[in-house]
Amino acid sequence: MKTSLRLLAHRRFLPLFTTQLLGAFNDNLFKQAMILFVTYQVYSDPLQETWFNAVATGIFILPFFLLSALSGQLADSRDKAQVIRWVKTAEIGIMIVGAIGLLLPSVPLMLLALFAMGVHSTFFGPIKYAILPQHLKEDEVLGGTGLVEAGTYIAILLGTIVAGVVAGSAQAAAAMVVGVAIIGWLSGREVPPAPPSVARVKLDLNPFRSSWTLVSNTMHVPRLFLAIVSISFFWAIGAVLFVEFPPIVKNVLTGNPAVNSLLLATFSVGVAIGSIAINRMLKGHVSARYAPISVIGMGVCIILFFFVVRGWESLPDGRLYDLAGFVALPDAPLLLGTLLLVAIFGGMFVVPLYAFLTTTVDKSETARTVAANNIVNSGAMVVGSLIAMALSAVGVSAVEQLLFVATMCLVSAWLAQKLHRACD
After folding, report:
1. How distant, in Å, are the alpha carbons of 247, 296, 405 from that of 391?
2. What domain range is 113 assigned to?
3. What is the pTM of this model?
4. Helix residue ranges, H only, 166-221
5. Is residue 205 packed enough to be buried (19+ CB in 10 Å), middle (13-18) or exposed (0-12)?
6. Which one has a higher pLDDT value, 417 or 56?
7. Which of 231, 202, 204, 208 is nearest to 354 (CA)?
8. In a domain, 3, yes or no
9. Residue 355: which of 271, 268, 291 has the closest Cα?
10. Does 60 reside within a domain?
């Protein structure tokens, strides 16, 4: 087995890793700065906060549904390194718009930038996975995928922490998102060429026809179907958690923005740990062997998290715990520990499935396969967000919805077990 960390010493991996890390950091810094601003300064009603988070989630993932097919075609028929440079150039303009939205402040401008960042991520997403089999050896792909996932969540961790620190300074957040976009552009220029292995084809610009064609051409392969559905169900679970998390922190745990950042940071660390751990457990072999037990473990830990949250003693009169006060609480270590385990098991579940997508098909089809996965994922996340909104509308609290999420993990485990039996 290749030691995955050694890949960071090579140009064939490090610039891509750095570019992805900076993009994920910037993306999360902007999203968190916006959500903290709206949750803590605009709305004071839990239902409104839940609905805003659901709408923001929908706005961000809409481009994945509409443009993933085009992004996959582009990545498989053009030099992937060149596409990365185009995307990172666009990020600078997007972050300028986002910075203006933070400075005014203007919620419509912030949402516009959020949508544009969704477009940015739609075009970068297939490349970050599809380029790995092109630049890495076969026994390095799982390790490289794990490092990309770990780096992504380390970046989310850093972006979350920084967003909490600069929550009261729009000027600092605005300057940072533009500055990081520029650094990401410089890093993207160092990614080695990754020319297409097929002749350049005419792009189908019709988003609905191209999406339908791409998904139907991919999902008819049983193994790919099971992998994509398993990943998509996982992200539907994630969408519900994402929608409900800020209201739970504010209204149940009664934590301030720094507490929200601490919990998200804990989650990010957990996914990073799981991403690296599963590579070592599988010894570089791409397999769904541990996926079913991983997602079951995730569900069990969500139930534990539910009981800790349900028994939490909230502060009265609209008061909020600061970071020092929160971590000093007797139940804080148990809360953070269960959340960490949820994330570790989540990382162990999803990383091998992404590696499976890029190693099952020919290298000329990897970007389109990831793009097809992104289309189905985005649909699943929309469904997850709508379910969270519907449950909130009929009076199911954010805390009670954690039990629904735990139940969804059982379905995800069943799908992963079918994939394991079909492929291993």
Report:
1. 14, 23, 12
2. 8-191+208-423
3. 0.72
4. 170-188, 207-219
5. exposed
6. 417
7. 231
8. no
9. 291
10. yes
Residue 294 lies in a domain: yes
pLDDT above 70 covers what percent of the chain?
94
Terminal C-alpha separation, the chain:
19
Number of domains in the chain: 1
**Which residue's entry shows tokens 């492929």?**
423
Two tokens, residue 31: 């999203």
Average pLDDT over residues 278-306: 88
In a domain, 314, yes or no: yes
Q: Determine the 3-state secondary structure of 255 from DSSP.
A: strand
The amino acid that residue 267 corresponds to is F
pLDDT in tens, 19-63: 999 998 998 889 888 877 776 666 666 667 667 777 787 788 788
Give CA separation, 55 vs 100, 202, 275, in Å: 21, 34, 29
Tokens of 102: 């933070």
Which CATH number covers residue 85? 1.20.1250.20
Three-state DSSP class for residue 91: helix
Residue among 169, 176, 171, 166 nearest 27 (CA): 176
